[in-house]
Backbone:
C-alpha cells in the first residue's frame, strides 16, 4: 500500500471529486462509486475467497472500512487502488477466518516447483544439432471470431479460477481490472519481481487453457 | 555447421521472458537478444500474439453489474454510517 501511495499514479479527477462529496454524506456520489467499483471489488475479493457469497460480503465490508477511513485518503493513489488495498486487507482477513488462507509456499515464486510457460514437449531438445530449444510444433494462429465468443471467455474465467491464489490475485488485478504493475504491488504487498513472475505464470496458464479450448481439446478439470 | 553464438536465445528461453519483456524489465542485452530472436522466428511471434490475445480475452472478463440486492445493502450501510456519524467529516 505504501508503495502504491508513493508512486505518481494518475489521478482520475472525477473519482476524487466523488470522494470529496462522500465526505459530505452525498448519497448519489456513493452510488456512483459503487456502480463504478463494486463489481471489480467483488471479483478481486473472489480471487482470495473463491466463493461469490463470501466475496460479496467481503466487498461490502471493504466499503464500510473505506467510509470509515476516507478522511485519511489523500488522493496520492487512484481511488480504485485505494479501494482495492482496503479490500485486500478485508479479503485476506476473511480468508484467514474461513480457513482459506494461502499457504506461504504459494506466495513465493519458485515455491510452486518448476512451472514452464509452455509445455516442454513443444520444443526440440536443447542439444538438437540444428535447432536447439526451437519450437517442435509452432503456435498456430487463433481464429479471431472464436476468440470473441462467450465460450472462450468462460474458458479464460475457468482457467483463472483454477490458478494458485497468488497468481489469481495478480492476473485479476493486472489483466481483468487493468491496474498497473506498481499499483498491483502496492495492493498485494509484493515486490516488483515477484509480481512479474506470478503474472507470467498466470498468463502462461491461461494462454495454455485457451489454446486447448480453441483446439477443441478436453480441458483440465 | 552452427556458429556457436553465445548470445543466441532459444525459443524455450524466449517464452519465459515474454512478461519481463512486456514490462520493460529486461536488461539491454537480454532485450536485444529477445528482439533479434523475434525478428527471425515466426513461431515466437505467433506465441507473442497468443499472449497478447490472452490478455485481451482476460480483459473482457471485467464486465459485470452490481446486483440490485448488493446496491440496496450498500446504500443502507451508507445511510447508517452517515447517521451514526452525524454526517462524515
Residues:
Amino acid at each position: 500500500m505504501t508503495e502504491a501511495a508513493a508512486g505518481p499514479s494518475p489521478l482520475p479527477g472525477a473519482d476524487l471529486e466523488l470522494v470529496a462529496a462522500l465526505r459530505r454524506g452525498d448519497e448519489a456520489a456513493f452510488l456512483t462509486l459503487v456502480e463504478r467499483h463494486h463489481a471489480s471489488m467483488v471479483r478481486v475479493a473472489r480471487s482470495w475467497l473463491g466463493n461469490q457469497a463470501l466475496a460479496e460480503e467481503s466487498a461490502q465490508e471493504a466499503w464500510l472500512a473505506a467510509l470509515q477511513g476516507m478522511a485519511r485518503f489523500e488522493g496520492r493513489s487512484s481511488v480504485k487502488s485505494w479501494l482495492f488495498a482496503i479490500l485486500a486487507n478485508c479479503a485476506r482477513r476473511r480468508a484467514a477466518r474461513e480457513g482459506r488462507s494461502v499457504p506461504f509456499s504459494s506466495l513465493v515464486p519458485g515455491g510452486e516447483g518448476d512451472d514452464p510457460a509452455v509445455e516442454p514437449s513443444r520444443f526440440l531438445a536443447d542439444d538438437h544439432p540444428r535447432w536447439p530449444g526451437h519450437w517442435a510444433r509452432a503456435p498456430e494462429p487463433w481464429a479471431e471470431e472464436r476468440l470473441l465468443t462467450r465460450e472462450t471467455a468462460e474458458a479464460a474465467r475457468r482457467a483463472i479460477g483454477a490458478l494458485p491464489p497468488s497468481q489469481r490475485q495478480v492476473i485479476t488485478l493486472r489483466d481483468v481490472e487493468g491496474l498497473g504493475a506498481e499499483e498491483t504491488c502496492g495492493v498485494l504487498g509484493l515486490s516488483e519481481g515477484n509480481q512479474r513472475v506470478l503474472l507470467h505464470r498466470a498468463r502462461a496458464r491461461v494462454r495454455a487453457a485457451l489454446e486447448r479450448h480453441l483446439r477443441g481439446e478436453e480441458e483440465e478439470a | 555447421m552452427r556458429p556457436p553464438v553465445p548470445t543466441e536465445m532459444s525459443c524455450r528461453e524466449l517464452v519465459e521472458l515474454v512478461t519481463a519483456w512486456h514490462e520493460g524489465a529486461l536488461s539491454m542485452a537480454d532485450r536485444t537478444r529477445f528482439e533479434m530472436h523475434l525478428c527471425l522466428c515466426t513461431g515466437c511471434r505467433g506465441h507473442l500474439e497468443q499472449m497478447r490475445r490472452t490478455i485481451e480475452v482476460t480483459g473482457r472478463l471485467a464486465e459485470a453489474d452490481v446486483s440490485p440486492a448488493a446496491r440496496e445493502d450498500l446504500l443502507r450501510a451508507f445511510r447508517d454510517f452517515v447517521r451514526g456519524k452525524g454526517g462524515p467529516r
Residues 105 and 111 of chain A are 5 Å apart (CA to CA).
